[in-house]
């Protein structure tokens, strides 16, 4: 992990190569104004990356900053790996659970409401409006907003907890009403599709939670073999008989 700390607010931008630092792009200019200004920024670095480029923009004269490389255990990756194991091995049970159905529906409603709001704004915005260029990306711009919100979630909870609580209550109740209206899945094929989707998502999370790719791939194969171990045993027993 690369950590950039400064005495005043700065902007830190991560790019793929040095050429992109000098390349002019309208979207880079737009997002440079939208990107949050922080005095403590952390960037995760892939162990297999050959090169990591970042740009530090000083917003005020006299600003001093330091760039430090850290190697430590990341609890977020462990949680991602554990969640992947849970989804993969418990996907069959979760796909039939009403508690999981309503919990997942409310969670998806809370996250998707911002995407839908920005997408609707992009549809009703006049074509010649300057703001339209910010919303023309639709989903990509709203995904960036979600990333910005999660990055500053602690500050939002401190300063705007009333609005956050109202948003969670309103959208949560609305999502629950929609889930209650359509009810849990009853068709066996739909349940199987949900179970397979949860197991596939679990495998992706298992792979993403380990930074050493050969070990991650090996753990995915072990998980798949362990999940379906009863079938080879049944075949072996049938062949023995």
TrEMBL record:
InterPro entries registered for this protein in UniProt: NEMP_fam (IPR019358)
Keywords: Membrane, Nucleus, Signal, Transmembrane, Transmembrane helix
Domain of life: Eukaryota
Presence of keyword Mitochondrion: no
Transmembrane annotation, as ranges: 77-94, 100-119, 131-149, 161-180, 200-224
Keyword rRNA processing: no
GO CC list: nuclear inner membrane
Any matching Pfam family: NEMP
Chief place where the protein resides: nucleus
Lipid bilayer topology: Multi-pass membrane protein
Subcellular location: Nucleus inner membrane
Family to which the UniProt record says this protein belongs: Belongs to the NEMP family.
Name of the protein described by the UniProt record: NEMP1 protein
Species classification: Eukaryota, Metazoa, Chordata, Craniata, Vertebrata
């Amino acid at each position: 992990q690369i950590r950039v700390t400064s005495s005043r607010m700065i902007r830190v931008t991560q790019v793929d190569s040095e050429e992109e630092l000098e390349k002019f792009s309208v979207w880079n200019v737009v997002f440079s104004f939208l990107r949050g200004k922080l005095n403590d920024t952390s960037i995760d670095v892939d162990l297999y990356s050959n090169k990591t480029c970042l740009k530090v923009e000083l917003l005020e004269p006299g600003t001093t900053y330091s760039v430090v490389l850290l190697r430590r255990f990341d609890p977020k990756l462990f949680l991602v790996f554990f969640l992947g194991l849970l989804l993969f091995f418990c996907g069959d049970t979760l796909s039939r659970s009403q508690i999981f159905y309503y919990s997942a529906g409310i969670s998806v409603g809370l996250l998707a409401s911002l995407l839908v709001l920005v997408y609707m704004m992009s549809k009703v915005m006049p074509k010649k409006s300057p703001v339209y260029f910010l919303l023309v990306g639709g989903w990509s711009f709203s995904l960036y907003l979600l990333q910005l919100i999660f990055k500053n979630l602690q500050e939002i909870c401190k300063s705007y907890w009333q609005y956050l609580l109202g948003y969670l209550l309103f959208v949560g109740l609305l999502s629950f009403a929609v889930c209650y209206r359509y009810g849990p899945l009853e068709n066996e094929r739909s349940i199987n599709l949900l179970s397979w989707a949860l197991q596939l998502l679990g495998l992706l999370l298992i792979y993403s939670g380990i930074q050493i790719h050969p070990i991650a791939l090996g753990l995915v194969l072990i998980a798949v073999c362990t999940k379906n171990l009863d079938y080879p045993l049944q075949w072996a027993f049938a062949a023995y008989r």
